[in-house]
UniProtKB/TrEMBL annotation:
Listed cofactors: a divalent metal cation
InterPro entries given in the database record: Peptidase_M42 (IPR008007), Peptidase_M42_aminopept (IPR051464), Peptidase_M42_dom2 (IPR023367)
Record-given protein name: Peptidase
Signal sequence interval, chain numbering: none
Gene3D superfamilies cross-referenced by the UniProt entry: Peptidase M42, domain 2, Zn peptidases
Family of the protein in this entry: Belongs to the peptidase M42 family.
CDD domains for the chain: M42_Frv
Entry keyword set: Aminopeptidase, Hydrolase, Metal-binding, Protease
Active site location: 207 (proton acceptor)
Cofactor note: Binds 2 divalent metal cations per subunit.
Region (Disordered): 110-130
Coiled-coil boundaries: none
GO biological process, any: proteolysis
Length: 351
């Protein structure tokens, strides 16, 4: 079984707890609990972003961010037959959703449902060839029509039902995007003591629908430096050429050079590299052709900011079986904590 230094039970709690964009209430409660134990003060803003601050000895401040929200759904309709139809919150590949269990979070409590998938031998050729879309899916909750309409309402939130487990040297489950990075900043917060600079550990909202929480928080915090953590693509599986892997599991934490939304500050990513090498932390570079993270949210608000990003290589993103290597998680926590411990506020990140 895998060997690792982190608190697996906390990771399980974070990943298995529900929290779609704009409705991160349950996960926010866990984050506040953890940050209150390890930071000097904790604040929540009007959008729901949570910030735990460790005061430094200088006015220089660093924001470290990971997002709380997971991709999910909102109920858009309950049919006359009692089936539930969905609207996506975040980017789903509808092909992977059929025959999956979900939790519908109603006012009276959570209700289990299953996304319907008729037997393949009963489908016509036209039905087999049709491209799946979220709007065409239905959730069967096992209730008659009248009871279903009394139980589920338009606007109820829906998340996938899945547990997080150890699998060889990996951990796998739902919502590793981005709870495994949220977990990493919480673990790093436990290690940072008496920093030279003020450190804001930020858990952001609504990343999956447009980096909205980080964009607002960049204005409110106005940090001198921002580091974002998110998962990144690891297509190191059959069917992909090596040049398309982006990152590889087990090769270390990933220092982002670019993605579809940001080009990180060269001086910041070089210092991340130097810290990794001096501390003996395994790392790799990330060049992501598309997609974006909270890094861009901080760069695009309240003036020019030096930004950097650390990513955890993850297979099968935006599914219920996202998988990461435990050694890469350890390396991410180690690099972030070491970077913050050695940040004096005197490094020149201007270009």
């Amino acid at each position: 079984m895998a060997e690792y230094e982190f608190d697996f039970e906390l990771l399980q709690e974070l990943t298995e707890t529900s929290g779609v964009p704009g409705y991160e209430d349950r996960i926010r409660d866990i984050v506040r609990r953890e940050l209150e134990a390890h930071t000097d003060k904790v604040q929540t803003d009007a959008m729901g972003n949570v910030v735990g601050t460790i005061e430094g000895t200088s006015d220089y401040s660093v924001a470290v961010a990971a997002h709380m929200d997971e991709i999910g759904f909102m109920v858009r309709h309950v049919t006359d037959e009692g089936f539930v139809q969905l609207d996506a919150l975040g980017g789903w590949d509808a092909r992977i959703l059929k025959a999956q269990r979900v939790q519908i979070h109603t006012g009276a409590g959570d209700v289990t449902g299953v996304i319907g998938s008729p037997p393949p031998h009963t489908l016509s050729e036209e039905q087999k060839e049709k491209d799946d879309e979220v709007k065409d899916l239905y959730v069967d909750i096992g209730l008659d029509a009248e009871t279903a309409k009394e139980t589920v309402n338009v606007g109820d939130l829906v998340t996938m039902e899945q547990t997080t487990v150890e699998m060889g040297d990996h951990v796998t489950g739902k919502a590793l995007d981005d709870r495994i990075c949220l977990f990493s900043i919480l673990e790093a917060a436990k290690r940072v003591e008496d920093p030279d600079v003020t450190v804001h550990f930020a858990a952001t909202v609504q990343e999956e629908v447009g980096l909205r929480g980080a964009t607002a928080l960049g204005v409110d915090l106005n940090p001198d430096l921002a580091i974002a953590l998110d998962v990144t693509v690891a297509n190191d599986v059959p069917g992909f050429d090596a040049g398309d892997h982006v990152t590889e599991l087990g090769a270390g934490t990933a220092i982002k050079l670019k993605d579809g939304s940001v080009i990180t500050n060269p001086k910041v990513h070089r210092r991340l590299r130097d810290v990794a090498e001096s501390e003996g932390v395994e790392y790799q570079y990330e060049v992501l052709p598309a997609g974006g993270t909270d890094t861009a949210g901080f760069q695009n608000t309240h003036g020019a900011k030096p930004v950097g990003a650390i990513s955890i290589p993850t297979r099968y993103l935006h599914t219920v079986t996202e998988s990461a290597h435990v050694a890469d998680v350890d390396a991410t926590i180690d690099l972030l904590a070491a970077f913050l411990d050695t940040e004096t506020g005197e490094h020149d990140y201007t270009l």
